[in-house]
Specification:
This protein is of the alpha+beta class. It has two domains: about 10-85 and about 225-445, FAD/NAD(P)-binding domain (3-Layer(bba) Sandwich), CATH 3.50.50.60; about 90-220, Flavocytochrome C3, Chain A, domain 1 (Alpha-Beta Complex). It has helices at about 70-75, 140-145, 155-165, 180-190, 190-210, 260-285, 295-315, 320-335, 340-360, 375-400, 420-425; strands at about 10-20, 25-30, 35-40, 45, 80, 85-90, 115-120, 135, 175-180, 215-225, 230, 245, 320, 365, 425-430, 440-445. A hairpin with a 5-residue loop joins strand 2 and strand 3 (about 35-40). Bound molecules: flavin-adenine dinucleotide. Flavin-adenine dinucleotide (FAD) binds near residues 60, 61, 247 and 264. Flavin-adenine dinucleotide binds near residues 13, 66, 248 and 267.
Length: about 450
């Protein structure tokens, strides 16, 4: 940007992919200030539009994060890889009310020194400072003596949910566990904690009005990162020639789980080390028809986008898009969240189309298309979440094994740990759009391991 080599178009939202002669050749974007639809033509398209965690409504992601770009590309032929692999982070500030619009992540690093516990007695309403040491269950230290509070995110999240589901949750909603720095403060002093985590403690204090130096923090898991995304090859190109997808928007690198700081790794690897070389190869070796933005593929795609916007505005219903999103989020969290089973997933697959139908009958979008209109932006994104969510649930239903962030309740060991089924599921599930109302086609890309063999994880 500084060198003036990149032209920046701020406040544009990509609303569709232009495919011409089988190649990705541009995008249609809405100017979010004027409302005008604009087309951009090129020899290739790179999507770097982030993850789809906001499908669950509440997540740690920015409110503006959305799935529109990847979803519209999917509907133009790009396969969606492993949509059910989503990461749930254990260290978030619990939800406090029904009208909350997002969740706050407390850094992973807090688990280095904080100890996680719940009262040993079910439904204990005593304040934490009144619960003596021998009446506290440091359940991660008990269950995983060698890893303790540092077990991976999926395990820590699932165990916290299990404690709350079994009646040991704390705080007003009972959907929280304690993260306690009492011992660390005793051992190293308040100053040491302040130096390491002061900003996080301040943030927690600001949000909850509780002093974490005196009382344990309350934490609960939240959707944080999506490992699934558009399928790409090793050159980061999707199955649509010329459509590249990088960062969280693609499915690559992480498989079913993700480690802390690895998004940074993916961002660097994709954007710095891989794409600059692979896209150059594509541009140098491919042949391209000459194309102008007035040509048919751009006109046709712009017409599709115009019609879709018109459809959103013409419903003139009574219910804001956010209400549908909240409803969808509840279905997703309850049935396609931390523990997934056949019954719940089938229920989600019935519920999601109902919410989607209700949305298209009753969504209220005020304002017009030709001006700044955040309600219109929101409605378009929610409409896409209402479609993508069904694919996520379908993928989760078909994968009858537990694997990283995807925990199928039916597939667990006697000790409640995730049980893999490598014989039947060692593949990437790449879903191909087959048309509205039609079951998408599943392609299985086998995973081959030459050196490191997948094995059952153990943190005991
Ligand atoms: C609270 C929090 C803490 C995190 N901490 C860590 C950490 O410590 N270490 C780590 O490695 N990772 C961390 N992550 C994850 C990491 O930040 C993300 O995975 C990473 O930023 C993804 O980068 P990206 O460039 O792929 O996408 P993003 O950073 O999400 O960027 C996508 C961009 O595309 C824009 N966009 C989306 N759709 C459209 C559209 N249709 N048209 C135009 N623009 C669009 C978005 O507005 C956004 O600007 C954290 C994430 C969160 C939410």
């Amino acid at each position: 940007m500084d060198a003036g080599k990149v032209k920046f178009f701020p406040r544009r939202e990509m609303l569709d992919l232009v495919v011409a002669d089988g190649q990705a050749r541009g995008i249609v974007a809405r100017n979010m200030v004027t409302g005008a639809l604009e087309t951009y033509q090129g020899h290739a398209v790179v999507l770097a539009t982030g993850g789809y965690g906001n499908t669950w409504y509440l997540s740690t992601m920015a409110k503006a994060s959305n799935a529109t770009a990847v979803w519209r590309a999917y509907k133009r032929g790009a396969c969606f890889g492993n949509p059910c692999f989503a990461q749930i982070h254990p260290t978030c500030i619990p939800q406090s009310g029904a009208y909350q619009s997002k969740l706050t992540l407390m850094s992973e690093s807090l688990r280095n020194d904080g100890r996680i516990w719940v009262p040993k007695k079910k439904g204990d309403t005593r304040p934490p400072q009144d619960i003596p040491e021998n009446e506290r269950d440091y359940y991660l230290e008990r269950l995983y003596p060698s890893f303790g509070n540092l077990v991976p995110r999926d395990v820590a999240s699932r165990r916290a949910k299990e404690m709350c589901d079994n009646g040991y949750g704390v705080g007003p909603t009972k959907l929280a566990v304690y993260l306690d720095f009492g011992d660390a403060i005793k051992r190293n002093g308040r100053h040491w904690i302040e130096e390491k985590y002061g900003n996080l403690f301040d943030m927690y204090h600001e949000i909850t009005n509780e002093d974490p130096y005196r009382l344990p923090m309350r934490i609960y898991p939240a959707i944080h990162y999506t490992m699934g995304g558009l399928w790409v090859d090793y050159n980061l190109m999707s199955n649509v020639p010329g459509l590249y997808v990088i960062g969280e928007a693609n499915f690559s690198d992480h498989g079913a789980n993700r480690l802390g700081a690895s998004a940074l790794m993916q961002g660097l690897a994709d954007g710095y080390f891989i794409l600059p070389y692979t896209i150059g190869d594509y541009l140098a070796t491919e042949t391209f028809q000459s194309l102008k933005e007035t040509d048919e593929p751009f006109q046709r795609t712009t017409k599709d986008v115009t019609e879709r916007i018109g459809r959103l505005l013409s419903v003139r219903g009574k219910t804001p898009a956010d209400d549908f999103h909240r409803e969808l989020g509840k279905v997703m969290w309850d049935n396609v969240g931390m523990g997934r089973n056949k019954k719940g997933l089938e229920a989600a697959l019935k519920e999601i189309p109902k919410i989607r139908n209700a949305f298209w009958k009753d969504v209220k979008v005020v304002g017009t298309a030709d001006s700044l209109n955040s309600e219109l932006e929101r409605a378009g994104r929610v409409a896409d979440f209402l479609e993508l969510s069904e694919l996520i649930a379908r993928d989760a239903l078909h994968r009858q094994e537990s694997c990283g962030g995807h925990f199928r309740v039916e597939s667990q060991t006697e000790e409640g740990e995730a049980k893999r089924d490598d014989r039947n599921f060692t593949y990437v599930a790449a879903w191909e759009y087959a048309g509205d109302g039609k079951v998408p086609k599943l392609h299985k890309e086998p995973l081959k391991f030459d050196y490191v063999k997948p094995s059952q994880r153990s943190y005991k």
